[in-house]
Amino acid sequence: MTVSVRILATAAAMVLVLAAGDVADAKPKAAAPPNAANAELMKMTPEERAAKLAEKVGGWCIGTRAFLMGIVRGGPRPGSAYWSLECADGRSFAIELDRDGIGTVIDCPSYERASFGKKCFKKL
Asked: Can you give the residue ranges of every domain in the chain?
């Protein structure tokens, strides 16, 4: 029961950040604040990126596919990057990577139930 409450609380927090913030995209708007941790991920090969994000997940996840969903420009956590990660065992996770490199992780089914139509592996 405690784990379910914690998962829902994490999902709710991620949804509130996404709802409050504007997502960086190709349109000319104010730039998202710098996110050095995300910039480092973008320099890596896809395989290295998936492995690095899997470290945030832990729990025996071997990252096989990473997908950048978007970067939030505004709201309470501007500059946070949102990634989807698939593990070799079929599990998938949404990861919020803040500007300090701290990752908040939630499994994709919980994220999708709580996020009002947002999906893992889709642009925000």
From this structure: 2-114
